[in-house]
Design goal:
Strand order of the largest sheet: 3-10-5-8
Number of strands: 14
Structural class: alpha+beta
Low-confidence stretches: 1-55, 482-503
Helix content: 40-55%
Distance between the termini: 109 Å
Oligomer: single chain
Mean pLDDT: 78
Radius of gyration: 40 Å
Number of helices: 24
């Protein structure tokens, strides 16, 4: 070789550089051991000698076949799969794009925004010379002038977030659902990915094509399903659509599922924040799940829209027989049953759920329509089983009628339907119907006499009442004797003998320990349900024991001062400060 050949300056790199010598660069860039995995656009020009040098690219230039860049492209293919699923889904379910999927969409868009920036630094192969172009200006001009750049930008911009930041309003228009479909432009990456795998001899051509067919089919089915749902929800008569014709109430079903999912998430967050025990959390979830499962059976929203007369007729059809066969309402007039049945509320309870809790203030009593419940009590921290109640049996009425804390805990044994009767409505209904009140009282006393000794032992007030009643019955028998039917005139011996039970039960009110215009922050303003005492002084003493401080002023919710306790009504709210 001559000296002139040795000292001859090399030609510019941008004119002579072939891509193939870079296949044998340092290990950090990775080696391409299988030429079949390369794109045909990266094949060397004829006459290029491979392996003669290890020429490096310019600074801040990425080789398109660099191992790290190829891994980045593969990672983006995974994100494209998410985009292919989410874009049609967010068109059909517009709330998803502004709800739980919004943070995920922003993260995915951020990755593709990074890829747009990287593309300005990726060398490309000149198809006329088959030489690798690494000049930043040429790379940028080629990318910007190509259709890829505006489509990449359009498919990456978070239009909904931008609209909300600019206008301050939530983005709920249908136009954003169609703008999200621009993300499907990213599917070209999947096509290129499968094309490269098909040419790679390390992978089976059959299985590669098979996987590609499966992916295309899944995407087509998913997109069609989302489109049909979108069409059914927007068409003026959804029953004429394919989805509406097969599932007439599809909107309600999907709405219940979304509400159930959101409610379950709220319960899980609440239980975690307050560190509730696992058993209590499971009870909350079971009750919530059952509530949504039985929504179709209860149809409360449908009934609320109906006139009261129709609602009453429906309730009589469903529950009148149950009410008439309970021990408390046997023999009462039809007028009483008709009025009572219109005020009841039907509820479902899952197994092992406490319906009534021992020592709680009685607000309702219940009748079992179907299922079974256990009556239990607690002694020295130990649970003791007392009895089992089934269909057409009642519980909670002792606490309501005597106006005492509930003596027992009542827990469902299996899935049970019960009807709930409000203490307030029951009291208003009985007061004007004196004859029915006497019948109910007689039935109630007969029921008390039939209770087990274990149950009476848990209710000292009831036991005392029965003892006094028996003593008075004995005195009446001695003085007057029994009537021809052998029954005692209960109205003469019941109400006045026991302080816990009177003709006019004490009024119950709700007290608060603050001014009505200055409610405490952070909760704690539910109030305390108490029996209204006979004097203002006693009321202030009760409030002091409940709230830990003694007040001097009693006002109503509207700010008017209370001067006469006799003017108060059931469930009035009193503010003591």
């Amino acid at each position: 070789m001559s000296a002139s050949d040795t000292t001859r300056s090399p030609m510019p790199l941008s004119e002579t550089r072939s891509p193939m010598p870079l296949l044998f660069r340092r290990h950090s860039s990775g080696e391409i051991r299988n030429l079949a995995s390369l794109s045909s656009s990266l094949l060397p020009a004829f006459g290029t000698v491979m392996g003669e040098s290890s020429v490096r690219l310019k600074r801040f230039v990425i080789a398109p076949y660099d191992r790290r860049y190829r891994l980045w492209q593969t990672f983006l293919v995974v994100l494209v799969v998410y985009s292919a699923w989410s874009s049609p889904f967010e068109l059909a379910f517009s709330k998803a794009s502004t709800g739980a999927l919004l943070p995920v969409d922003l993260v995915v868009d951020a990755f593709f925004a990074i890829d747009i920036i990287l593309t300005f630094f990726v060398a490309y192969l000149d198809k006329s010379t088959y030489l690798l172009v690494e000049e930043h200006k040429k790379i940028a001009l080629r990318y910007v002038r190509h259709l890829w750049f505006p489509m990449d930008v359009a498919s990456t911009l978070p239009f909904q977030t931008i609209y909300r930041l600019v206008t301050g309003k939530p983005s709920r228009g249908q136009v954003f659902g169609f703008l999200n479909l621009l993300r499907l432009w990213r599917l070209r990456r999947v096509s290129k990915f499968f094309s490269r795998l098909e040419k790679d001899t390390r992978f089976s051509y059959f299985w590669t094509r098979y996987c590609k067919l499966i992916c295309v089919t899944l995407f087509a089915v998913h997109s069609a399903g989302c489109f049909y749902y979108w069409l059914a929800t927007r068409y003026h008569n959804s029953e004429l659509t394919w989805l509406g014709a097969n599932i007439p109430d599809f909107k309600t079903r999907i709405l219940n599922e979304c509400m159930q999912r959101d409610a379950i998430n709220e319960i899980l967050r609440y239980a975690k924040k307050n560190r509730l025990p696992e058993g209590l959390k499971e009870q909350m979830l079971a009750h919530l799940t059952l509530k949504f499962k039985t929504a179709e059976l209860q149809q409360e929203q449908v009934l609320e829209d109906l006139p009261k007369a129709i609602r009453s007729s429906i309730s009589q059809q469903l529950f009148r027989t149950t009410l008439e066969n309970t021990h408390l309402f046997k023999g009462v007039s039809d007028d009483f049953i008709v009025q009572l049945v219109s005020e009841i509320k039907a509820e479902y309870f899952p197994p092992k759920v406490d319906i009534v809790i021992q020592n709680e203030i009685p607000t309702d009593f219940y009748i079992v329509v179907s299922g079974a419940v256990d009556v239990v009590t607690y002694k020295n921290g130990m649970e003791q089983f007392l009895s089992k109640l089934g269909s057409q049996q009642m519980f909670g009425e002792i606490g309501v009628i005597f106006n005492i804390p509930q003596p027992f805990t009542v827990r469902t044994k299996r899935l049970s339907q019960v009807v709930r009767i409000s203490h307030h409505h029951f009291k208003q209904l009985v007061q004007p119907l004196q004859e029915d009140g006497k019948i109910i009282l007689t039935n109630f006393i007969q029921h008390l006499k039939g209770l087990k000794n274990e149950e009476l032992a848990e209710m000292p007030l009831v036991s005392e009442f029965l003892d006094d009643l028996i003593s008075e019955e004995a005195s009446v028998n001695e003085a007057e004797g029994q009537d021809h039917s052998g029954q005692i005139q209960q109205e003469d011996v019941i109400p006045t003998t026991t302080p816990g039970m009177s003709k006019t039960p004490p009024t119950r009110v709700i007290i608060h320990g603050y001014h009505p215009d200055h409610k405490p922050k952070g909760g704690g303003n539910a109030g305390k349900l108490i029996h209204l005492p006979d004097s203002v002084e006693n009321l202030l003493s009760i409030a002091e024991s409940k709230f830990g401080r003694r007040g001097t002023t009693i006002v109503m919710a509207d700010g008017s001062q209370v001067e006469d306790l006799d003017a108060l009504r059931e469930d009035d709210h009193l503010y003591i400060f």
